[in-house]
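Supplementary Methods S3. Input chains for the assembly prediction are listed below.
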Amino acid sequence: MQKTSQQTVGVVGSGAVASLAARRLVSSCQVLAFAADGNLPTIDGVERLASLAALGARTRLVLVADEASSSDVLSASGLGAALSRGATIVDLLPGDPAQARSLAADLAGRGIAFVDAPLHCEHLQAFPGDAAILCGGASETLAEVLPLLERLGAKVVVCGDVGSGRIARAIVCAVAVCNRLVTYECAAMGTENGLGLADMATVLNRCSGANSATARVLPVLTAGTQTADARLDGVAAELAQCMQLARRVGAPALIANQAAAQVLAASRTFGPGATLDDLRSLVELGSNIRFTA
Amino acid sequence: MRVGYVGLGAMGGALASHLVSKHALNVLDLNPAVVAGFVERGARAADNGAELARRSEVVLLCLPRSVDVRQALFGTNGLAEGLMPGSVVIDQTSGLPSETREFARLLQPRGVTLLDAPVSGAMDTAIAGTVSIIASGDRTAFDRVHAVLTDMSPNVFYVGETVGNGQTMKAVNNMMNASCRLATLELVAMGRKAGLSLETMIEALNATTARNFTAQGMLPAIAQGRQSTKFGLALQVKDVYQAVAMGGERGVTMPLCSLASGMLQIGLNTLGDCAQLEQMIGVIGSMAATSFAGSAS
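Predicted structure tokens for the full assembly:
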């Protein structure tokens, strides 16, 4: 596919989401990449740049997924200072919606548009299955960036003004964790009362107990197959932010608060390498059972 | 086949109505008007359980609770007095698995096999003949009565030789549904207060691993101003308490499910015994001081 100057896109960050974005776009865009920590993976066709200034000189559209140093790079004085007026920054990571609005206001002072577009994906290895990009921003800015975001491959959902993408992502994250934890709890109750996991999966997925975890997690629970690579410490931090939002708006979110506490406990129990799949072990430990054969 | 049905309430009546034209159906219920309706359609009324059992090869029950099943089986002129050796009893009550297993043990010396086959699904699915039937018990007996079950719905699941597994499976399903329902509603309420539209959240939830039965069914119904469920809140509380108790008896910790059960109890205490599960939408909205439909607050 021909790469034109109009399709030049910057990707900032060194984590899994930044790598994924660069890989997904490189076939249709000229991709320029920068990582503040220098840990940029080598991707064929992606041009690595040494500074934000170098990036800002060559593109007006930048996707940010800077897991290492968000606060420094994603700011009016960081990336905002490197870009020219009329540029657009799209942040692919979750965060505080109020901070997104504040950042958007700061960037607007420099003539730069901002879109919060966090990608929700529990299992990047299986991308784009069940992944979505949840976008918040001014409608005219969203209209410009949506075609590019759609090229990433995930479902793109327009949520409203700046900050609403992060709100939607927080809600999605919390409901998804509740789906998973409730499924583990009920699977434990069922197995300890004589049911087989396979039978439970068959029936639940045809009945009103169905959810994404009964479809994806329950059928492979005995085998211990991986269903997620989202790190538990990251999910715990996001849920803490979600509960902060709940307090801010005056929503009790009782079940979600309990789920957030359990995820934090699991994260501390199982360490930095733990993923969402390790919530299974939390339930196993709590009930003194084993799901795996 | 000579079939008997005991308990022609809302669910039992809907299930039995699929049998009346396909079998020699005997019926028994405390409500004579309901019985008369079945007789008009070709069923034969029985004066008591023993009489119904003597006329039937297969007897189905759908009663409020296990204590009612015990009375129907073993009370004066109960089914047990008329059941013939080789006959099969199918309990469709949302009962207690331990009680149901005891009923099976008590009937076994008479040569009678008891299966449990509770249903899962809305009333309209029972009427339409598409409700899920979750059966368990002796496999040979299950195979013998399979045609009777599929006459009520093609969606028949068999979950093992242990009597009561069907009821356990139903409890698991109800608990899953209730917990995910309340978790989703309270987070959507938060989203509403934070300024998101219900339609946006429906799209986001269903595009991701946040997808569940509530996001797929109840939330769109709220957005469209439709009723999403027809189920008594008191029955829902009974069901979830049963599930949590079954976990507790086996040492299974169920913190999220227990919390969901407590929220349903708050709803029942607030709204009264006649409340419907649907009204929990308003309860969750009130807890967050917001509404699900309309402009965000």
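The longest strand of chain B covers residues 2-6. The domain at 2-163 of chain B is CATH 3.40.50.720 (Rossmann fold).
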